[in-house]
Structures
1.
Amino acid sequence: MLELRNINAGYDKRQVLNDVSIKIQPANLTVIMGPNGAGKSTLLKVMFGLLKPDSGEILLDDRPLRPEPSKLVHQGIFMIPQGKRVFRNMTVLENMELAGHFWKDRSVFKSRLEEVLEHFPDLKPRLEDLAGNLSGGQQQMVAIARGLLNRPRLMLLDEPSIGLSPKLMTDTFNKIKTIRDTLGTGFVIVEHNLKTLLPLTDDAYILDQGRVVYNGPAQSQTLEKMTASIFETKETLS
Amino acid sequence: MEYLINLAILFCIYGMLALSLNLVVGMTGLLSLAQAAFYGIGAYACAIGMTSLGLGFFTTVLLGILVNGVLAFIVGKILSRFQGDYYAIVSAGLSIIVFSVLLNWKDLTNGPLGIFGISKPAVFGYQLSSNLAYLLLCLAAVVLSYFFYNLIDKSSFGRTLKAIREDEQLTRSLGYNTKHFKSIIFVISAVMSGVVGAMFASYIAFIDPSTFQLKEGIFLFTIIIVGGLSSARGSIAGALILISLPEILRFIGLPYETAAQLQQIIYGGLLVLMMVLKPQGLFGKYKM
């Protein structure tokens, strides 16, 4: 579905990604992991067009693509940037409405909102509340729900567990899996908290110093060994 | 009475300028210091159009809209790449450039000597020669500007601007071309300022470049911070306070020898006090 070939990218003169190639399969849960500074968030930014690569090729459905957020959203790809979940000074409903700019017809938005809220019943009574007053977990749910309004094919999530308690983190990952199973939405998740997430995911990539050092199934002994050595602790997975 | 009418007209002019600036600074979060430039261009388009080209007031307003619209579109495209402090510096640069052009392009602007003899407009054949009649025109324009501001504020366009203010990257991630939105609001604001500039020139009958310096942009900035960012009411209240406060201080019986200095100190002190007590301004939704 979404493929990156031989991507080199960075900021000014500092190269962060070195010859990175990855392939995201449709409707899969893909986790991208690696130590701090490995280039995980940079990779997500390149995928979504928030950072232009210096070289390499990006393909969507086997066709070359110059990613631009405004174009990708129309093609069913959404991103939730790291630590930026909601517009805190707006209500939950206004947050939702911001994602509904595709439809001139308000009734389409309303029906989509109803549809999405079925997956997030806790948000229903909070629609008129300021998003900034919600808990971290609820804000994450608003962000995911907002993305789902457009029935995306793929959502890119950058460290969705940041600031969440272990329970909320587990709830969030379970919700993501449920959405994938019921709606067929694929997810690419950059994440540190692998213990909770890995058992739920299909594919995994490990980045180290800007290079892909693992590419394969999320449940494998090789992966377990590699993560343990890269993160220098086995607690991450055990 | 004439004194009060004059004050009221100035209040209207600064109220409208504050509304136009608040669209960019308050609603969208762009630290623009370019407002004095567009205000000046509108004023000079009116002055040159009426005195040299013999155009009617409303034709010169259209001329100002055209010039400001084109310039703001080009500058807005450049500015839309910047944020925060950088935006302020680049927009201040524009203000300085426009001031220099007004000062030095003597063939067109008459340089530091300014332009005299700008007449008042005629509305439906009726010449607004009295200040009271002009005040009515200004009040109508303020009301119109106020509703226009609120129209944008409550629209989906306004909601997107507020989203950009809060988090531009998050707004982009929802598929918005944020540069496009930033450019559009910059043009709208510039055009509004230009119209006000024309009204000012026509009222005051004489303009020179000194009125349109960068410090005028900073004064407008002060108005919206005191009144409150992203608030139409705040823009009006800020203009009312900053226009009337120096006048009130003239009548509090300060010793003649030091009155001017004391007025400045009290004026500045009151502004500091207000910001300490109400950092988001009187009706503001955000702090700077």
Note: Chain B touches chain A at residues 156, 159-160, 162-163, 166-167, 169-177, 285-286 (CB under 8 Å).
2.
Amino acid sequence: MSIFDILGPVMVGPSSSHTAGAVRMGQMTRRLLGGEPESAEILLSGSFALTGEGHGTPRAILAGLMGMDPDDERIPQSFELAGEHGIKFSFGTVNLRNAHPNSALIRAKRDGRGVEVGASSPGGGRIRVFSLDGLPTSFSGEVPTLIVRCEDRPGHVSRVTGAVAAQGINMSKLQVERDTRGGTALMVIECDQRIPYKVKVAISAIEGIYNVTRLNPGEESK
Amino acid sequence: MSAVTSIAGLLKVSAEKKLPLWKTVQLTDCAEQDMSEADSWEKMKNMLSVMREADQSYDSRRRSLSGLSGGDGGKMEDYVRSGRSISGPLVGEIIAAALRMGECNACMKRIVAAPTAGACGVLPAVIIPCGKAMGLPDERLIEALYAAAGVGQVIALRASISGAQSGCQAEIGAASAMAAAALTHMAGGTSQQIANASALALKSLLGLVCDPVGGLVEVPCVKRNAAGAVIALTAAEMSLAGIESRVPPDEVIDAMREVGEKMSPTLRETAEGGLADTETARKFRERDEAAIRHGPGLT
């Protein structure tokens, strides 16, 4: 813990969990989508559903989807700005069982592709993604993280991790989930070192890989 | 230097290395985070700038999304300006500054969490007006922010700075302890006096519950920032006068943790008890959604 976790972060109020964390959720969804969404459906759960409006949570999530940081003073105007950018958005509530009280389910689309991100904001502006496209997972993006969505087939885990190891990167955590046998699989790989672009290129070239996202802390995907 | 997990440790390292307390805090963090002293200083300087910007951007006509907050900082300013203030212009301005910052936060303006967003008004409310009244250069105020952050870090490590975990004592209480430390440094107090002031402030807020009306960071949070700031001033004055906390700072922090553990979950940010469960709060909650949808909104 740094002293700047105590004196900081610089953020738009009123709540680190319901506002700053909500911006981070939107940003995370944008990165997993690979750019600005054309449309977004935001469903709030638990305390987010109960007190989110008064905390500006919907505005904050939308601001994050548009690439704003938690200290961006345009956050309160995100509805109007999204309208100007032609982003279609809607809000609702959902009851996410067993999820942290501060949680949301965000569905976003772009170029005919969609993502569904389930995330929670336990406090201090930090977030945790607990589901991606309906598959359970757990990552925060606070360490370099590689997210690979692919066809469930033998040898994929080995080839993907091989591509990571080839760059001398040490993996600290590896999660693998799939929907059905031979269906879609999700690999989340947390690493000790920054993940370079060539790892993404190498993995994307493997047959049956649908999508690769790199999350390097402090680097926004454009 | 290892991470500082106690106020006693902070004092010991400062004494051994013959450093002021704020410098020990800075050097320890630089070593932990692999950051240069210059970068760290620039970062802290920026925190002071953001605090000032937020304070100056205050608009008393602005209201929060819920309509519960806004305008009180302006009322306090007018009152102080009228010359009728019982405690005089400095204390009046501290109260006004705390309200302004708390309202900025409620109205979605940019603030510095110190240590949390809900308690963001306490520290700037003593640093900015007192710095001005004492004629201190910014360097002194930045040093004071380090002293405050050091105290806050020990509280976070030994206890908590989360209302959901330990109640408001962990937010306004921690902020007040941090502000007392900052103020004591600004007035030229010794490291021992800085530590002592933080203990005196935290003791005064021990047991304070987190009971926000409607679950929003507004009522009573905004006004508790003013109370926390004045308690910080009281604690600093006592410490500078040579008055000691009979219970040492680390033990006070440990007691805060224990009190937090014994606190009912209904009094820890869940908005199920205390002020949040009053008749007025329940009525507010009922019309909450409608008020937000059709209320004044952000202007």
Note: The radius of gyration of chain A is 17 Å.
3.
Amino acid sequence: METKNIRVFFSKTGRAIYISHLDLYRLFQRSIKRSKLPVWETEGFNPHVYITFALPLALGTAGICESLDLKLTEEICREELISRFNDALPRDIRVTDAAEPVMKPTEIALSEYEARFECDNAAFAEFLSSEHIMTEKKTKRGIAELDLKEHLSILGQSDGYLRFTFPSGTEFNINAGLLFDAFEKQTGTEIYTLRITRTAIKCRNGENFH
Amino acid sequence: MTYKDKLDRILLKVQKPSRYIGGELNSVEKDPAKVTMRFAFCFPDTYDIGMSHLGMKILYSLINEVPGYWCERVYMPLPDMEEQMRKNDILLYGLESLQPIKDADFIGFTLQYELSFSNILAMLDLAGLPVYAKDRPDLTPIVCAGGPCVCNAEPIADFVDLCILGEGEEVNLELMRLLEQCKAEGTDKHEFLVRAAKIEGIYVPSLYEIEYNDDCTIKSITPSEGAPCKVRKRIIKDFDRVFYPETFVVPFSEIVHDRAVVEVLRGCIRGCRFCQAGYLYRPFREKTVETIEKETISLCESTGYDEVSLTSLSTSDHSEIERMLGTLANYSDAARVNLSLPSLRIDSFSKELVDRIKSVRKSGLTFAPEAGTQRLRDVINKNITEENVMNSCRIAFEGGYNAVKLYFMLGLPTETMEDIDGIADLCQKIIDLFYSIENRPKGGIKISVSLSTFIPKPFTPFQFEPQPTEDVIRERQKHLMEVVNKKRVTVSRSHFDVTHLEAALARGDRRLSAVIYAAWKKGCKLDGWTEYYKYDKWMEAFKECGIDPAFYVNRPRSYDEIMPWDHMDVLLTKEFLIRENMQAHEARPTPNCRKACAGCGVNKCVGRPCFDYS
């Protein structure tokens, strides 16, 4: 059967930020079934809709440029695809665009984040300007020491606001929340109502993943 | 700060946060400014369990179809979430509005099992409300309870304002309209309750006075303020046209029964004498194949589920089961949806059915002979024979199955060690049968025996019976372990601790409210969860209240004793239950309702015979 690859872009905000990656996968499977879109299904004993996500989003982080890839078995126009998806999805997950994929997920290098929060602003500024921000990161091989500062680029900063990038991708990935966990741990103070949104996913060539 | 903001502060600190935030597909949000009645529908257990419950899905949709009425879902948070809520001053809230339920008009609990009783107190407390009904003088929120356990609501009588007996599809809305009217008139809570008690199916415990004899049995039950002597259970007469939701809320996370569910019939014709559901849900009523098909398609299409389960107490008793399966198969094959059929009876187990289930998913098969000997099966009126069991197993083995799960009950009335030996013998016969089949599946046979303990329940012919004592139960469990073929059979047993409490609560009276309160004060909640269940605390609570659980659990009750639930009318006569109890002791079975009317009394309500016997 002739199929056409499509990359579907979506946002995951509001109440939906608490949906885990595994649950998001099941959610899209069901939504596609509901939408009756002509999406290619795997063959075999337990057929299921074939979808792959470019880059998982951490639980609790919102995203406005998330994407998944699927195969269409029939030609369908972009507008109809988007609207049929949105009719089938819960409110806080919205499909924003769909197009033929250009880049491979393996080309992803970093994610851009925007964080809004309430905390001791002076302490946070001092924390950010320190030479090292050491933290522990869980890896497949156990817990490793990691200097967040080494991987952090700050794009914008004011009281209770931070725009920054962290490495992302299949090889190496840093959860944006780690930065704020490290602050709480180091200073012994609390951050209130932290809201992090992934605003862009960038490839090694500097372009947005698309 | 809004509740959403507060929740955003804590949700990443708890396990599986998506179950505490709502916003799922098909969940109903309404404009609070246009809402006149808010109903906080509480399932007194966790989200994963409560979200699987069909009755709640039905009533949720039903209420939300009414403009201005808003039904929200509320579940019991696990301890990690409760701790965060308490630390951050978050009261128990509805998943739709994320607003505290103490501001709702109704807080309704569905009581599916006795071990959820302590969760009522835990949830009311977490909602910021006094747990005793007498300490809530305001008209709203009205705390009510429904579900099978309210056929004997006495143990929780002090906590709830009213109970809804029977099927809620009609009476819930009548009750909401009454409260709406009372709110408009500015009446007080007492006046509302007096008026509510006049609605058929509504039980207001505070309007009944209970007098006890010196031996603590009940002397009299006296209604006041015009409340009926007997509260009559509500039933839906035209079951084929009863409201059924076109869609379900689809959870983000996986829940216990994560699939579409269509109710194909209500009631049961079998009359197994230990089974409360088989008596409570009478009369037997079924949906037409056309209705079932329509509801199946609608649910699958609106939820995106790829599995649909046909549910009831005994699905194979549908008068048109073959045509139903054929019709549904046409849809399910085309739509790539799996059909699953729980609760099939052994004697209805045909080759066609095996093939149908197999084409869906090959897993083990489960049978419920319930007792090891024919004599005891006759006592409990489980009208199946060893031949039925063997035939079904043969069909299953020839169809490629090599795992069988068998349900048995221990501690049944008149049971002796011979009956326990019978369980082991039956297992051995099934093993021998397996090896006698030439084209048997590869690998050996595995039998898992699930051995529960008999719990006498109200409104069954066994409501008069004692549960055997701990020593007897343990001895019989031990005996089975000694005589069963350990190589092929694994036995799982129910814990005595749990069945003991369930037995006490099931046939308890109003004096147990004090025990439940004391146990809750000692930290008892989530009693259905092994990791949270505190048997010793419960026993302490009984002791402190000066109540011996054996009074409720191990004491035979005479036919003329006034039962704590005698002022409930579930449309069965007490004479019928006594007659069935006598037959049980003579090991005489009663034919199923389709073959002959057993005279339970429910047909008086239907106004005609339940089946055409001509």
Note: The CA atoms of residues 98 and 128 of chain A lie 38 Å apart.
4.
Amino acid sequence: MLELKQVQKTFNPNTINERRALKGIDLTLQEGDFVTVIGGNGAGKSTMLNAIAGVWPIDQGQILVDGIDITKLAQHKRAQYLGRVFQDPMMGTAADMELEENLALAKRRGQFRGLKWGITAKEREEYRELLKILDLGLENRLKAKVGLLSGGQRQALTLLMATLQKPKVLLLDEHTAALDPKTASKVLEISDRIIAENRLTALMVTHNMRDAIHYGNRLIMMNEGRIILDISGEEKKKLTVEHLLEQFTKASGSEFATDRALLS
Amino acid sequence: MDILAFARALPGSVAQGLIWGIVAIGVYITYKLLDYADLSVDGSICTGGAVTVMMMLAGYPAPLALFCATIAGMAAGFVTGIFHTAMGIPAILSGILTQLGLYSVNMRIMGKSNQAISVDKFDLTLSVRYIPQAILIGAIFCLVVIAVLYWFFGTEIGRAIRATGNNEQMAKAQGIDTNAKKVLGLMISNGLVGLAGGLLAQYQGNADVNMGRGAIVIGLAAVIIGGVLFGKIFRNFSLRLVGVVIGAILYFCVIALVLQLGMESTDMKLISALIVALFLAVPYIKETKGQKKVKPMVKGGEEHA
């Protein structure tokens, strides 16, 4: 479904600020894989997601979706294959546009946008049904400007928008990190449900080890631009936070360096 | 102050305000919808005027001349868009480059710095000599433009332009070619400005190479006055555009008033600049003074989320 072959990225090459963010990432996702990605600060988690999304060109390697080489495709062109939810709840929606307008924009991801006017009653009904499932009371606020919604509501809406056109791969980049714990767990549950119901292939970056263990069928750990651990199936189900920390120390030769991950 | 003289000047201000209202709508599209301060306007308004006058002097009918003025304005917007998106030049500078280049283009079109067109010899769309008629024609143009834009920005492609201006990152993630949308938005904006330039040249009876100087500031003034006065009551997109046109009319009424108070007409640019600076400062000062009221940026609602 998704294939990364020897993906490399260096920021600010040949300067004093040079940073080798990805040092040859090899990763293959099977259809229906829900992979959680964990690692310390600067491990390359978000960089890897941005590389897949095409935020900037990569230096070396190849990225394939469903066998199609998307390495050189512009960001908006590969959007037809990808659904994305960002860490910042403000980033995934257009604040000054109505809720239903945001959904209508997402509904046409990867499709031709022409001179068809407005939103049909049928479309609106579909959105209402989908919003009802979120259970956030948004189904009655289709005409509200998205800027009026809370961070959690916006994140849930972004999630819905990312999956309205079934993506080949769903990219979740610490999408609950900016929310309060209660809201975060609700948005995570919604994510899990949407992924399961639509049998989506997903890559979820998180700094929370417990969430990384609890959700998904596969877990990868990154450190200094490399994947250092890849656990799936039965083995993943038996994982504990302590075990994961131990594994990290063994694989990287250093202590896991994120206080956030330990405390949360 | 001579109240009567001021009252006599008002109809002319309204007519001028309606024509400049179309410029202001163009500015609204770039400044508010695309979040792009486009300075090409100063050049493209004159291009529209020059094309209109030269075509009419060559014997073409006014409607065709206005149509070509619109196309010429769109071409100017296209150039600014390419400067910005394909060549990576910052927004403001892209507009300044187009504006500067257009000076030469406008001189080429006109052959000299001023070309007059007499209402006695030509069938003009509107003229300062028949102000009531000019007000009617100006109002009709404004209403048609607003209606067409209301429709267009509700279409799939129009919504994509709005999304691009509102949140570019989100637009890209939803598969929108944001560069193409910016170019398209700039073309629509400058097309309207070119049209307004054609109307203005006919109204005042000439096209002048300096007729666009400070046009962006007048357009911004109208957008800002419209926003400040009607922002709370005009929520609908088409009503907001109506507010912008009223803003332009009020701007010219204020100018007429200031002239009656004895200021020189050459002082108007300074007054315009100060008015715009003042109105632009209001939201900023409100924000910095009233920080206690500002809610934290990222926080989930307790009840719903």
Note: Residues 3-33 of chain B form the longest helix (31 residues).
